[in-house]
Amino acid sequence: MEGTKKGYSKFIRPATYILDLIAINAIAFLVLSTSLVSAYFHIFITLSWSIISLNVSFYEVFRYTKIIEILNKLVKQFFLYTILCYSFAGFYEEDTDAKTIFIYILVCLFTISSIKFAIYHSLKKFGWLLFDSIKHAIILGKGVNIENLTEVLENPDYGYRLVKRFGAGDTKEDMAAAFDFALREGIDELFVSLSDLSKTKINEFVEFSEHHLKTIKFVPENREIFDNNFKLDYYGYVPVLSINRTVLHEPITKMFKRTFDILFSLFVIVFVLSWLTPLLAILIKMESKGPVFFRQGRPGIDETEFMCFKYRSMQINKTTEKEASKNDPRVTRIGKFMRKTSIDELPQFLNVLLGDMSVVGPRPHLWSQNKAYGNRIKRYMVRHYVKPGITGLAQVRGFRGEIETDEDMINRIKYDVFYIENWSLILDLKIIAQTVINIFQGEEKAY
Hints:
alpha/beta; Rossmann fold; 6-stranded mixed sheet; two-stranded antiparallel ribbon; disordered N terminus; Bact_transf; transmembrane helix
């Protein structure tokens, strides 16, 4: 079957956010008084707009989002934004003109609304021209909402291709057939009727979703099963429950984390790698023949392979899928120092800049480890929901280096999943700070 058409849809929301920031700042410059519109004011409205948009999910607009929901987001966003603008203007009483502020808000409202509805209309009608992703879907079950959902998904405006429908999904045969088909045909999303579906079966669908990185969406016939683990959306007038992933899957959050990654990696590359790499290159070449950098394919986000960079710390050998152990004879003298201080990992800031990794996240495992533990450890594959990191919560808690027992990997996964489900910028900064502290203190399993 033809694979999912990957395109530029992931850039639409970040681009809209940037366009909105340009608009509110440009309008402020043109409409408001010179004394009010200072550098502080521009910083204030930029931060205010960003924080409010995160709280009201202003940029969480999809093809299936209803007009009334978009209007609701606009009202919330501008109500709070208006209050903050008037609050800031209060510091400039002699220059404050309430009418001018009101005109500024109205012009912003008109401009932002026009941008939002223009993009929404383009997504609905011309998504294929924008290289928007087409998601392949299957449906399991029957019922009134399932029949209505079928009509919705067959409408190209929603960006889906409905590939096949299966039975009720409450038998092992139906589930096995659907799971096999989804894996074989590269299905992106499974819509499952919750009618007559036991909690055990629901858990099996959830485990399939986590293990194979597929999106499961449940379609209820009533509202009895709603709880905090689900996010409610409407496809047309059909309620659909999506399993909540994490805040890291929200477009604006991803953009903030990506911006931090770019700035942090550029700082390290310019001020550290620029002079450290030539020095280490000489030492590495003096001790052993071979390249300065070691490159190896590792599973990244959605288990897609990327080339992971490191300073070469071992003699050239053919056992690259075997992780380093204590007193490993393959490790060179300079390599031992680099591994002890984690300097060998620094080239991965190039991976961060390229977008394959993040500064903080689950460490990228070997492919052999994925094969060995993917089916044995529950929720192992959840770590592939996000980009791998140069450092991570599991590493600063001591679960780094060689995996000697299953318990070592279980503990590592426990911290990886906790990080993914409880991410915050503060948590990232704490992990980075602890990583630096651990480097200077020395780590037992850094070899």
